[in-house]
Amino acid sequence: MAPPGTATIIMKVTGGEPAPPAVLAPRIGPLGMSPKKLGDDIAKATMDWKGMGVTIKMEIANRQANISIIPSASALIMKALKEPPRDR
């Protein structure tokens, strides 16, 4: 359970790529955060999962985001097999 005053946002992103600000703005705009800065933070946090779709959980408190990764089974298998990043 999140402490009071904390917002939790769960969304699917492509690893190693910043989430589009147009997608982030409606979700984090009311929390007073910059979509561009948060997109860069997401890209940095998901760099190990480059090219794979992963689910992230953002816990936002005091205009600071704590980003954790919730990998899917397929992403874990791809990482374990050391598959090269997808060419998009």
Largest β-sheet summary: 3 strands, antiparallel
Percent of residues in helices: 25-40%
Beta-strand proportion: 25-35%
What is the typical, i.e. mean, pLDDT? 84
Distance between the first and last residues' Cα: 37 Å
Put simply, the count of helices is 3
Inertia-based shape: elongated
How are the strands of the biggest sheet laid out side by side?
Answer: 1-2-3
DSSP E strands, number: 3
Notes on the protein architecture:
It is a single chain. The chain has 88 residues and is an alpha+beta fold. The chain has three helices and three strands, in the order E-H-H-E-E-H. It has helices at 21-28, 35-45, 73-80; strands at 7-14, 53-61, 64-70. It has a three-stranded antiparallel beta sheet with strand order 1-2-3, covered by helices on one side. A hairpin with a 2-residue loop joins strand 2 (53-61) and strand 3 (64-70). Helix 1 (21-28) packs across helix 2. It is elongated. The N and C termini lie far apart (37 Å). The relative contact order is 0.23. The model has no long low-confidence stretch (mean pLDDT 84).
Q: What is the topological layout?
A:
Elements: E1 7-14, H1 21-28, H2 35-45, E2 53-61, E3 64-70, H3 73-80
Antiparallel strand pairs: 1-2, 2-3
Name the features.
3 helices; alpha+beta; three-stranded antiparallel β-sheet
Write a short abstract of this structure:
The protein is an alpha+beta fold and 88 residues long. Helices cover 31% and strands 27% of the residues.
